Amino acid sequence: MDIQAVRTHLLQRRDELRNRASRASADLRHESDPLSADFAEQVTQRENDDVLGAISHSAQAELRQLEAALRRLAEGRYTTCSVCGESIEEERLAAVPYTNRCRACAESTRNSIHG
Ligand SMILES: [Zn+2]
In whole angstroms, how far apart are CA 40 and each of 16, 24, 32, 35, 43? Predict the structure, then answer.
């Protein structure tokens, strides 16, 4: 597995997410789009704010996972399952780049959550 390529990809993704999160929060502060005096227009703006809040929230949640993945990369633990210590399958990391669990551990966690 090409760790350097993974790292480059994660860093690019981090920039994207940071831009998206900061654009959404700038829009939420209505820096370039002050709240309208018209009530109907305000309702539309509030709805838009809800969407922006969700975008900003999910970008920040992904950023946290991404930072954790970058930390594991820096520490040489990126491909090591944090539960059982075995290697995480390459195709699993390709599909779920932020995961810290191998497939077996991810599945057993999921099963235990659902009883
Ligand atoms: Zn495992």
Answer: 33, 22, 19, 11, 5
